[in-house]
Automatic annotation (TrEMBL):
<dbReference type="InterPro" id="IPR036457">
    <property type="entry name" value="PPM-type-like_dom_sf"/>
</dbReference>
<keyword id="KW-0378">Hydrolase</keyword>
<dbReference type="Pfam" id="PF07228">
    <property type="entry name" value="SpoIIE"/>
</dbReference>
<dbReference type="InterPro" id="IPR003018">
    <property type="entry name" value="GAF"/>
</dbReference>
<protein>
    <submittedName>
        <fullName>GAF domain-containing SpoIIE family protein phosphatase</fullName>
    </submittedName>
</protein>
<feature type="domain" description="PPM-type phosphatase">
    <location>
        <begin position="196"/>
        <end position="419"/>
    </location>
</feature>
<feature type="domain" description="GAF">
    <location>
        <begin position="26"/>
        <end position="171"/>
    </location>
</feature>
<dbReference type="InterPro" id="IPR029016">
    <property type="entry name" value="GAF-like_dom_sf"/>
</dbReference>
<dbReference type="InterPro" id="IPR052016">
    <property type="entry name" value="Bact_Sigma-Reg"/>
</dbReference>
<dbReference type="InterPro" id="IPR001932">
    <property type="entry name" value="PPM-type_phosphatase-like_dom"/>
</dbReference>
Length: 434
Protein backbone atom coordinates (compact mmCIF):
# COMPACT_ATOMS: atom_id res chain seq x y z
CA UNK A 1 0.00 0.00 0.00
CA UNK A 2 1.54 3.33 -1.03
CA UNK A 3 2.33 5.87 1.69
CA UNK A 4 -0.09 8.84 1.86
CA UNK A 5 1.32 11.99 0.29
CA UNK A 6 1.40 13.88 3.62
CA UNK A 7 3.16 11.01 5.35
CA UNK A 8 5.70 10.69 2.51
CA UNK A 9 6.49 14.40 2.72
CA UNK A 10 6.98 14.20 6.49
CA UNK A 11 9.19 11.15 6.08
CA UNK A 12 11.39 13.13 3.67
CA UNK A 13 11.54 16.02 6.12
CA UNK A 14 12.49 13.79 9.04
CA UNK A 15 15.17 12.13 6.90
CA UNK A 16 16.63 15.59 6.30
CA UNK A 17 16.52 16.30 10.06
CA UNK A 18 18.40 13.07 10.73
CA UNK A 19 21.17 14.10 8.31
CA UNK A 20 22.04 16.90 10.71
CA UNK A 21 21.29 15.00 13.92
CA UNK A 22 24.92 13.94 14.42
CA UNK A 23 26.16 17.53 14.37
CA UNK A 24 27.09 19.40 17.51
CA UNK A 25 24.16 21.78 17.15
CA UNK A 26 23.65 22.07 20.90
CA UNK A 27 26.61 24.40 21.16
CA UNK A 28 28.03 27.19 19.08
CA UNK A 29 28.19 30.93 19.33
CA UNK A 30 26.81 31.29 15.78
CA UNK A 31 23.35 30.05 16.78
CA UNK A 32 23.36 32.09 19.98
CA UNK A 33 24.10 35.24 17.97
CA UNK A 34 21.23 34.46 15.61
CA UNK A 35 18.80 34.19 18.54
CA UNK A 36 20.12 37.45 20.04
CA UNK A 37 19.83 39.30 16.70
CA UNK A 38 16.29 38.04 16.14
CA UNK A 39 15.22 39.37 19.56
CA UNK A 40 16.94 42.70 18.91
CA UNK A 41 15.34 43.16 15.47
CA UNK A 42 11.86 42.55 16.89
CA UNK A 43 12.54 44.42 20.15
CA UNK A 44 11.23 41.25 21.79
CA UNK A 45 12.36 39.56 25.02
CA UNK A 46 12.54 36.00 23.67
CA UNK A 47 14.00 34.25 20.63
CA UNK A 48 14.95 30.65 19.95
CA UNK A 49 16.44 28.49 17.24
CA UNK A 50 14.76 25.08 17.16
CA UNK A 51 14.97 21.81 15.26
CA UNK A 52 11.70 19.90 14.97
CA UNK A 53 11.84 16.09 15.00
CA UNK A 54 9.02 13.61 14.77
CA UNK A 55 7.75 14.19 18.32
CA UNK A 56 10.26 16.59 19.86
CA UNK A 57 11.30 20.19 19.49
CA UNK A 58 15.00 20.64 20.25
CA UNK A 59 16.27 24.08 21.21
CA UNK A 60 19.77 24.70 19.86
CA UNK A 61 19.93 28.36 20.88
CA UNK A 62 17.84 30.70 23.03
CA UNK A 63 17.80 34.33 24.07
CA UNK A 64 15.99 35.90 26.97
CA UNK A 65 15.16 34.90 30.55
CA UNK A 66 13.91 32.31 31.23
CA UNK A 67 14.55 30.75 27.79
CA UNK A 68 13.20 27.25 28.42
CA UNK A 69 9.78 28.49 29.54
CA UNK A 70 9.47 30.62 26.38
CA UNK A 71 9.06 27.64 24.04
CA UNK A 72 5.67 26.97 22.52
CA UNK A 73 6.28 23.56 20.97
CA UNK A 74 2.97 23.40 19.13
CA UNK A 75 3.70 26.61 17.22
CA UNK A 76 7.30 25.55 16.44
CA UNK A 77 5.90 22.30 15.01
CA UNK A 78 3.31 24.23 13.01
CA UNK A 79 5.90 26.65 11.64
CA UNK A 80 7.88 23.93 9.81
CA UNK A 81 4.73 22.91 7.94
CA UNK A 82 3.88 26.46 6.90
CA UNK A 83 5.03 28.04 3.66
CA UNK A 84 6.80 31.33 4.31
CA UNK A 85 7.00 33.23 7.62
CA UNK A 86 4.60 32.02 10.29
CA UNK A 87 3.07 34.73 12.50
CA UNK A 88 0.53 34.58 15.32
CA UNK A 89 -0.42 38.12 16.37
CA UNK A 90 -2.15 36.98 19.57
CA UNK A 91 -1.21 33.52 20.76
CA UNK A 92 -3.99 33.58 23.37
CA UNK A 93 -6.52 33.45 20.53
CA UNK A 94 -4.82 30.52 18.76
CA UNK A 95 -6.32 27.15 19.85
CA UNK A 96 -3.03 25.33 19.16
CA UNK A 97 -1.19 27.27 21.86
CA UNK A 98 -3.70 29.04 24.06
CA UNK A 99 -3.44 26.38 26.74
CA UNK A 100 0.36 26.21 26.71
CA UNK A 101 1.94 26.90 30.14
CA UNK A 102 4.21 29.51 28.56
CA UNK A 103 1.06 31.36 27.42
CA UNK A 104 -1.29 30.90 30.38
CA UNK A 105 1.45 31.21 32.97
CA UNK A 106 4.93 32.68 33.04
CA UNK A 107 6.31 34.34 30.99
CA UNK A 108 2.91 34.95 29.34
CA UNK A 109 3.71 34.74 25.62
CA UNK A 110 1.22 36.59 23.41
CA UNK A 111 3.07 37.06 20.10
CA UNK A 112 4.94 34.52 17.98
CA UNK A 113 6.77 34.80 14.67
CA UNK A 114 8.95 32.22 12.93
CA UNK A 115 11.01 31.78 9.78
CA UNK A 116 11.67 28.24 8.63
CA UNK A 117 15.19 26.79 8.39
CA UNK A 118 15.03 25.12 4.98
CA UNK A 119 17.53 22.87 3.25
CA UNK A 120 18.64 23.40 -0.36
CA UNK A 121 16.21 20.67 -1.45
CA UNK A 122 13.31 22.37 0.31
CA UNK A 123 12.97 20.32 3.50
CA UNK A 124 12.13 22.18 6.73
CA UNK A 125 14.43 21.37 9.64
CA UNK A 126 13.15 23.83 12.22
CA UNK A 127 12.73 27.55 12.68
CA UNK A 128 14.07 30.79 14.12
CA UNK A 129 11.39 31.98 16.53
CA UNK A 130 10.65 35.35 18.15
CA UNK A 131 8.20 35.74 21.07
CA UNK A 132 6.81 38.72 22.94
CA UNK A 133 4.64 39.16 25.99
CA UNK A 134 2.23 41.51 24.21
CA UNK A 135 0.00 40.99 21.17
CA UNK A 136 1.39 42.75 18.08
CA UNK A 137 1.95 42.56 14.37
CA UNK A 138 5.17 41.86 12.52
CA UNK A 139 6.51 44.31 9.97
CA UNK A 140 7.70 43.23 6.53
CA UNK A 141 11.25 44.37 7.27
CA UNK A 142 11.30 42.36 10.50
CA UNK A 143 10.07 39.24 8.74
CA UNK A 144 12.63 39.67 5.93
CA UNK A 145 15.38 39.88 8.54
CA UNK A 146 13.99 36.79 10.27
CA UNK A 147 14.13 34.88 6.95
CA UNK A 148 17.74 35.98 6.50
CA UNK A 149 18.60 34.74 9.98
CA UNK A 150 17.00 31.36 9.24
CA UNK A 151 19.10 31.20 6.05
CA UNK A 152 22.23 31.96 8.09
CA UNK A 153 21.39 29.06 10.42
CA UNK A 154 21.00 26.80 7.39
CA UNK A 155 24.36 27.97 6.01
CA UNK A 156 26.03 27.18 9.33
CA UNK A 157 24.42 23.74 9.43
CA UNK A 158 25.64 23.03 5.90
CA UNK A 159 29.17 24.06 6.83
CA UNK A 160 29.06 21.80 9.88
CA UNK A 161 27.64 18.92 7.85
CA UNK A 162 30.34 19.32 5.19
CA UNK A 163 33.02 19.49 7.87
CA UNK A 164 31.58 16.45 9.60
CA UNK A 165 31.52 14.47 6.37
CA UNK A 166 35.05 15.58 5.50
CA UNK A 167 36.29 14.47 8.91
CA UNK A 168 34.54 11.12 8.49
CA UNK A 169 36.04 10.62 5.03
CA UNK A 170 39.50 11.59 6.30
CA UNK A 171 39.08 9.22 9.24
CA UNK A 172 38.09 6.39 6.89
CA UNK A 173 40.98 7.18 4.54
CA UNK A 174 43.43 7.29 7.44
CA UNK A 175 42.09 4.00 8.80
CA UNK A 176 42.46 2.47 5.35
CA UNK A 177 45.98 3.85 5.00
CA UNK A 178 46.90 2.48 8.42
CA UNK A 179 45.54 -0.95 7.52
CA UNK A 180 47.43 -0.90 4.23
CA UNK A 181 50.63 0.29 5.93
CA UNK A 182 50.39 -2.42 8.58
CA UNK A 183 49.77 -5.07 5.93
CA UNK A 184 52.63 -3.85 3.76
CA UNK A 185 54.94 -3.57 6.75
CA UNK A 186 54.19 -7.15 7.72
CA UNK A 187 55.17 -8.34 4.25
CA UNK A 188 58.59 -6.69 4.70
CA UNK A 189 59.32 -8.48 7.98
CA UNK A 190 59.40 -12.20 8.75
CA UNK A 191 56.10 -13.30 10.33
CA UNK A 192 58.07 -15.21 12.99
CA UNK A 193 61.70 -15.95 13.68
CA UNK A 194 62.79 -19.58 13.26
CA UNK A 195 63.90 -21.70 16.20
CA UNK A 196 67.67 -21.98 16.37
CA UNK A 197 69.01 -24.89 18.47
CA UNK A 198 70.87 -23.56 21.49
CA UNK A 199 69.82 -19.94 20.84
CA UNK A 200 66.97 -17.62 21.79
CA UNK A 201 65.92 -15.04 19.20
CA UNK A 202 63.41 -12.20 19.42
CA UNK A 203 62.62 -9.16 17.27
CA UNK A 204 60.36 -6.15 17.40
CA UNK A 205 59.41 -3.24 15.19
CA UNK A 206 58.43 0.10 16.73
CA UNK A 207 56.81 2.39 14.12
CA UNK A 208 56.51 6.10 14.77
CA UNK A 209 53.53 6.52 12.43
CA UNK A 210 50.72 4.03 11.98
CA UNK A 211 49.94 5.11 8.41
CA UNK A 212 53.45 5.33 6.95
CA UNK A 213 55.59 2.40 5.90
CA UNK A 214 59.13 2.56 7.24
CA UNK A 215 62.33 1.13 5.82
CA UNK A 216 63.67 -0.82 8.79
CA UNK A 217 64.14 -4.55 8.27
CA UNK A 218 65.54 -7.69 9.91
CA UNK A 219 65.68 -11.43 9.34
CA UNK A 220 67.10 -14.70 10.66
CA UNK A 221 67.40 -17.79 8.46
CA UNK A 222 69.34 -21.07 8.11
CA UNK A 223 72.40 -21.54 5.94
CA UNK A 224 74.17 -24.77 5.04
CA UNK A 225 74.98 -27.24 7.77
CA UNK A 226 74.37 -25.84 11.23
CA UNK A 227 75.12 -22.22 10.41
CA UNK A 228 72.57 -19.41 10.61
CA UNK A 229 72.52 -15.95 9.05
CA UNK A 230 70.91 -12.80 10.39
CA UNK A 231 70.72 -9.19 9.34
CA UNK A 232 69.18 -5.88 10.34
CA UNK A 233 69.20 -2.54 8.59
CA UNK A 234 67.46 0.61 7.46
CA UNK A 235 66.82 1.91 3.93
CA UNK A 236 66.54 5.57 3.05
CA UNK A 237 63.14 7.22 2.93
CA UNK A 238 59.57 6.33 3.86
CA UNK A 239 56.45 5.15 2.13
CA UNK A 240 56.04 3.11 -1.05
CA UNK A 241 59.54 3.80 -2.40
CA UNK A 242 61.11 2.72 0.88
CA UNK A 243 58.93 -0.41 0.91
CA UNK A 244 60.06 -1.36 -2.59
CA UNK A 245 63.70 -0.76 -1.66
CA UNK A 246 63.33 -2.76 1.55
CA UNK A 247 61.90 -5.69 -0.37
CA UNK A 248 64.82 -5.55 -2.81
CA UNK A 249 67.39 -5.38 0.00
CA UNK A 250 65.92 -8.31 1.95
CA UNK A 251 65.69 -10.49 -1.15
CA UNK A 252 69.23 -9.61 -2.19
CA UNK A 253 70.71 -10.32 1.24
CA UNK A 254 69.05 -13.73 1.41
CA UNK A 255 70.03 -14.64 -2.15
CA UNK A 256 73.61 -13.41 -1.70
CA UNK A 257 74.00 -15.46 1.50
CA UNK A 258 73.02 -18.61 -0.35
CA UNK A 259 75.67 -17.92 -2.99
CA UNK A 260 78.41 -16.87 -0.55
CA UNK A 261 77.63 -16.48 3.16
CA UNK A 262 80.79 -14.52 3.96
CA UNK A 263 79.31 -11.35 5.57
CA UNK A 264 81.67 -8.99 3.75
CA UNK A 265 80.83 -10.62 0.41
CA UNK A 266 77.09 -10.42 1.15
CA UNK A 267 77.24 -6.65 1.74
CA UNK A 268 79.41 -6.15 -1.34
CA UNK A 269 76.84 -8.05 -3.39
CA UNK A 270 74.05 -5.87 -2.00
CA UNK A 271 76.03 -2.73 -2.82
CA UNK A 272 76.49 -3.88 -6.41
CA UNK A 273 72.75 -4.51 -6.79
CA UNK A 274 71.83 -1.07 -5.41
CA UNK A 275 74.47 0.62 -7.59
CA UNK A 276 73.01 -1.11 -10.61
CA UNK A 277 69.50 -0.13 -9.55
CA UNK A 278 70.50 3.53 -9.71
CA UNK A 279 72.71 3.38 -12.82
CA UNK A 280 71.51 5.83 -15.46
CA UNK A 281 68.45 6.86 -13.51
CA UNK A 282 67.32 10.28 -12.34
CA UNK A 283 65.66 9.06 -9.16
CA UNK A 284 67.38 9.63 -5.81
CA UNK A 285 70.19 7.20 -5.08
CA UNK A 286 68.84 4.15 -3.19
CA UNK A 287 71.01 3.35 -0.22
CA UNK A 288 70.82 1.68 3.14
CA UNK A 289 72.72 0.77 6.27
CA UNK A 290 72.93 -2.84 7.37
CA UNK A 291 74.69 -5.32 9.59
CA UNK A 292 74.95 -8.91 8.41
CA UNK A 293 76.12 -11.79 10.58
CA UNK A 294 76.70 -15.53 10.55
CA UNK A 295 76.27 -17.74 13.61
CA UNK A 296 78.28 -20.92 14.02
CA UNK A 297 77.57 -23.23 17.02
CA UNK A 298 80.74 -23.64 19.09
CA UNK A 299 80.57 -25.72 22.25
CA UNK A 300 78.19 -24.04 24.71
CA UNK A 301 78.06 -20.83 22.66
CA UNK A 302 78.22 -19.42 19.16
CA UNK A 303 80.91 -17.90 17.04
CA UNK A 304 79.67 -14.72 15.36
CA UNK A 305 81.07 -13.05 12.25
CA UNK A 306 79.66 -9.57 11.59
CA UNK A 307 80.03 -7.19 8.68
CA UNK A 308 78.59 -3.69 8.72
CA UNK A 309 77.89 -0.98 6.24
CA UNK A 310 77.21 2.40 7.84
CA UNK A 311 75.21 0.86 10.67
CA UNK A 312 75.37 1.44 14.45
CA UNK A 313 77.38 -1.19 16.33
CA UNK A 314 75.81 -4.32 17.70
CA UNK A 315 75.94 -4.52 21.49
CA UNK A 316 76.99 -7.65 23.35
CA UNK A 317 75.40 -7.89 26.80
CA UNK A 318 77.60 -10.31 28.68
CA UNK A 319 76.49 -12.74 31.36
CA UNK A 320 78.23 -10.61 34.03
CA UNK A 321 76.18 -7.53 33.03
CA UNK A 322 78.86 -5.67 31.09
CA UNK A 323 77.92 -4.22 27.68
CA UNK A 324 80.42 -3.93 24.86
CA UNK A 325 80.07 -2.80 21.25
CA UNK A 326 80.80 -5.33 18.51
CA UNK A 327 81.84 -2.87 15.86
CA UNK A 328 84.22 -3.52 12.96
CA UNK A 329 86.51 -0.63 12.15
CA UNK A 330 84.96 1.46 9.38
CA UNK A 331 82.04 0.31 7.27
CA UNK A 332 80.43 2.76 4.84
CA UNK A 333 76.93 3.29 3.50
CA UNK A 334 75.65 0.66 1.09
CA UNK A 335 74.69 1.63 -2.45
CA UNK A 336 75.77 5.26 -2.56
CA UNK A 337 79.59 5.36 -2.65
CA UNK A 338 82.03 4.26 -5.31
CA UNK A 339 84.19 1.39 -4.09
CA UNK A 340 82.87 1.44 -0.50
CA UNK A 341 84.63 -0.30 2.37
CA UNK A 342 82.70 -2.80 4.46
CA UNK A 343 84.25 -3.86 7.75
CA UNK A 344 84.10 -7.29 9.33
CA UNK A 345 84.82 -8.61 12.81
CA UNK A 346 84.51 -11.90 14.69
CA UNK A 347 83.21 -12.34 18.23
CA UNK A 348 81.79 -15.02 20.45
CA UNK A 349 78.58 -15.39 22.38
CA UNK A 350 79.16 -17.53 25.45
CA UNK A 351 76.51 -19.10 27.65
CA UNK A 352 74.48 -16.31 29.26
CA UNK A 353 75.52 -13.69 26.68
CA UNK A 354 73.16 -11.76 24.42
CA UNK A 355 73.55 -9.67 21.26
CA UNK A 356 71.41 -6.65 20.37
CA UNK A 357 71.07 -5.16 16.88
CA UNK A 358 69.00 -2.01 16.39
CA UNK A 359 68.36 0.78 13.88
CA UNK A 360 69.32 4.40 14.48
CA UNK A 361 65.77 5.45 15.34
CA UNK A 362 66.71 4.32 18.84
CA UNK A 363 70.09 6.02 19.31
CA UNK A 364 68.97 9.22 17.53
CA UNK A 365 65.99 9.63 19.86
CA UNK A 366 66.00 12.69 22.10
CA UNK A 367 66.14 12.42 25.86
CA UNK A 368 64.11 14.73 28.15
CA UNK A 369 67.14 17.08 28.25
CA UNK A 370 67.02 17.45 24.46
CA UNK A 371 70.24 15.57 23.79
CA UNK A 372 70.44 12.43 21.64
CA UNK A 373 70.43 9.12 23.43
CA UNK A 374 73.36 7.97 21.20
CA UNK A 375 75.30 4.71 21.59
CA UNK A 376 76.77 5.63 24.95
CA UNK A 377 73.34 6.36 26.41
CA UNK A 378 71.93 3.08 25.12
CA UNK A 379 74.93 1.18 26.47
CA UNK A 380 74.53 2.77 29.90
CA UNK A 381 70.78 2.01 29.92
CA UNK A 382 71.33 -1.66 29.07
CA UNK A 383 74.10 -1.97 31.66
CA UNK A 384 71.83 -0.53 34.34
CA UNK A 385 68.93 -2.80 33.36
CA UNK A 386 71.15 -5.87 33.17
CA UNK A 387 69.08 -7.92 30.66
CA UNK A 388 70.76 -11.18 29.62
CA UNK A 389 68.16 -12.82 27.35
CA UNK A 390 66.67 -11.94 23.98
CA UNK A 391 63.18 -11.44 25.42
CA UNK A 392 64.52 -9.35 28.30
CA UNK A 393 66.45 -7.16 25.86
CA UNK A 394 63.29 -6.51 23.84
CA UNK A 395 61.38 -5.60 26.99
CA UNK A 396 64.15 -3.23 28.08
CA UNK A 397 64.22 -1.51 24.68
CA UNK A 398 60.42 -1.25 24.65
CA UNK A 399 60.48 0.39 28.09
CA UNK A 400 63.18 2.80 26.91
CA UNK A 401 61.23 3.82 23.79
CA UNK A 402 58.11 4.29 25.90
CA UNK A 403 60.03 6.47 28.38
CA UNK A 404 61.49 8.62 25.59
CA UNK A 405 57.96 9.24 24.24
CA UNK A 406 57.86 12.05 21.68
CA UNK A 407 61.64 12.14 21.69
CA UNK A 408 61.51 9.15 19.32
CA UNK A 409 61.08 10.54 15.80
CA UNK A 410 61.98 7.56 13.62
CA UNK A 411 61.02 3.90 13.39
CA UNK A 412 63.12 1.40 15.32
CA UNK A 413 63.75 -2.24 14.51
CA UNK A 414 65.36 -4.49 17.13
CA UNK A 415 66.80 -7.99 16.80
CA UNK A 416 68.10 -9.79 19.91
CA UNK A 417 69.96 -13.10 20.11
CA UNK A 418 70.95 -14.82 23.33
CA UNK A 419 72.61 -18.02 24.48
CA UNK A 420 70.87 -19.57 27.49
CA UNK A 421 73.07 -19.64 30.60
CA UNK A 422 74.95 -22.84 31.44
CA UNK A 423 73.19 -25.01 34.00
CA UNK A 424 74.55 -27.63 36.37
CA UNK A 425 73.08 -31.08 35.84
CA UNK A 426 72.19 -32.53 39.29
CA UNK A 427 73.12 -36.11 38.34
CA UNK A 428 76.58 -35.41 37.00
CA UNK A 429 77.41 -31.90 38.18
CA UNK A 430 78.80 -31.11 34.74
CA UNK A 431 78.16 -27.83 32.90
CA UNK A 432 76.33 -27.76 29.61
CA UNK A 433 74.27 -25.46 27.39
CA UNK A 434 70.64 -25.16 28.43
Amino acid sequence: MPMPLASAAEARRLAAVRRYAALDTASGAAFDRVAALAARIFHAPFATVTIVGDDTVRVIAAHGPPPRRAIIESLCAAAVRHAGPFVVDDVLLDPRAAGDPAVRGEPGIRFYAAAVITTADGEALGSVNVMDTRPRQAGEEELACLRDLAALVMDELEVRLTTHRTVEVERELRAGAERLARTLQRTLLPPALPRVPGLCAAAAYHPVSADEVGGDFYDLFPLDGDRWAFFLGDVCGKGADAAALTSLVRYTLRAAAVYDADPHAVLANLDAVLQQEHAGGEAPVPYCTAVFGVLQPDGDGFGVTLATGGHPPALAVRADGTVEPIHPAGGQLIGILRNPHFAQVSARLNAGDALLLYTDGLTEARTPTGSMLDEDGLTAYLAAAGPTSADALLTTVHDLITALGTGVSDDTAVLALSVPPATRTPSSGSLGAA
